[in-house]
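Entry 14. Two folds queued back to back today. First construct below, sequence then structure tokens.
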Amino acid sequence: MDKQYDIKVAVVILNWNGKKYLKQFIPVLIKNSKLDEVALYVADNGSSDDSVQFLRDNYPKIKLILLDENYGFAGGYNLALQKINAEYYVILNSDVEVSPDWIFPIIRKMSTDKQIAAAMPKIKAFHAKEYFEYAGAAGGFIDKYGYPFCRGRILDTIEKDEAQYDDEREIFWASGACMFVRSSVFHEQNGFDADFFAHMEEIDLCWRMKNSGYKIMYYPDVEIYHVGGGTLAGNSPFKLNLNYRNNLFMLYKNLPAEKLFKTVFIRMILDGVSATIYLLRFEFSSFWAVFRAHMAFYKSLKKLRIKRNKLKHGNGNHKEILKKSIIYLYFIKKKKYFNDIYLNLR
């Protein structure tokens, strides 16, 4: 018997000291969402500003979930989504401007195929709306060593949207900035890995979904606009540490056995090269961020091994994983755009 849900779609924003963005973007969200068909939630991660009181005073129809401390993106969403009985979750960053009729075109398409576990719209830059946005763009992919990239964004090169990625297609990961998720699959996969705290937890979740036989989709007929960097600045050593650490966590958990040692070993060498470059540039905080990431990985191996043993891996031959190194293609072969390396994904 199919599970009974209280509501079909719940849009859930995780907030941490984000009154500025709530004040800016909540009015547009309410205007462009059908509140008779959608529930809006804000889960607060122990904010110390007055964002919760602001919502109570101005938006009483928004449902609040109050957490007692900052559990990060991963842990915060896990705790919040356990309290929401909806068929679909829409995980939405607080610094996102949504467009009219942005929810149900994607929900309708997901409803036609139960193997679709997650999906994302086209994500463009709020401050330069003709360009894609770094965190997701037109769909996420990874290379053979776990480096993420997107259609529309290869490393630091961001493309202008000229309808070059207006085809619906299966992708490897959907951005946590705006991620549509089938709730049954989210809970089947035990949600995000809370040990990630923040960064790459959505890639890890999507990889687990892919290894379990589900699909992740990109739908370009919906556009949203993301500010980006609203919580941690791009050059934050803490963010850098999380990215290096979590990438190793993700590789160790999800790679098939025959690729595990070689891939992680090469990735750690590449991280060492990056750390050396930081050192030569006298960027000592960045160097230590990489060093601490590797130490954290070593200390977490026992726990990671337990997690890994509970997961499905298959042969790992997902067509959305680039069979070459994106670092090599970008820096040596000068392939700066997704369509330059597209044939390598075949």
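Second construct, same run, same settings:
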Amino acid sequence: MSILTIVFLVVGLVLLVGGAEILVKGASKLAATIGISPLVIGLTVVAFGTSAPELAVSLQASLNGQADIALGNVVGSNICNVLLILGVSAMIAPLVVAQQLVRLDVPIMIGVSALLMFFGMDGRLNRSDGVVLLLGGLAYTVFLLYQSRQEKDLAVQDEYAQFGERSLSLKETGLNVALFVAGVVMLVAGSQMLVNSAVSIATFLGASPLIIGLTVIALGTSLPELATSITATLRGERDIAVGNVIGSNIFNILVVLGLTSAVSTTGMTMSQSVRSFDLPIMLAVAVMCLPIFFTDNQVSRREGLLLLAYYLLYVGYLVANATRPESVWAGWIGIIVVPLTLLMLALLGWRTWATVRRRRSAEKLE
């Protein structure tokens, strides 16, 4: 491991942060240009753009026969997106969650996570599974764009009133497109530099390909989402901040894994550890979003801290299990963390049910 590896790591981080700022700026202005709400821009172009590193890394890993890295990259990124990115963003400022996310996009994220688990029950994602996922990603994108033009919700109409359709000059439109493209290029280049240097460091330390994919590469390719969501939060574009994470998770499963397994000649092998631990964690994290988002339609700072704590526990378990399999982490996770998680989900479910009753009572009084 040379000093050049460290230099690439730092340069990659700089490109990620700068690219995220440019991407959010260009995407927000494009939303006004073509009359699509910031929420839908966050769910589509920003989510797809910031997931480009996952796509590039997973495709390259699959073509090189490194299915563990490709799969670990996506599963680890989805866990990181919710626990780390939403957690950190909410700790900076409470995140307001649009109703569309609660009633449509989060259930879709849960559904595609469960579908991935179903496809992986035989220990493999074959080409036909990949085609189904890929077609689902195309249908989801087309539906979002169509729905954005037909949206009748008053909150979204208010967004149109603020950001809505307006005529821009060809020069302004070209500049916005150039900003968006430049942001994506910087994100992809920065992610590649960061991931390559991080893999070199992890390999030097003797970590397995699966652990590298679930931790180092997953975190590296999720840094665009992290930088974009934090930047969007600071700029007040909170629909983009939350929509970016949910859209990225859906895109990662449907398009990244779909395309990766579809182009692979032998499909993608799923190890038993991924099927029995990491995929259930990914699904549980997706399910956790629903009660958190529904209650008061926001992610509070306290909930952000809880999400971040869960991510640190997850990564701590992976690292401890990889370096010292005989340690007490596995038993501790099973005996303490899992029951506490179930209790937390039960409490969130009760809060959600109480919120529904309160809203219905208020509607009756009106």
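Quick look at the second one. Confidence is low (pLDDT under 50) at residues 152-165. The chain has one domain: 10-365.
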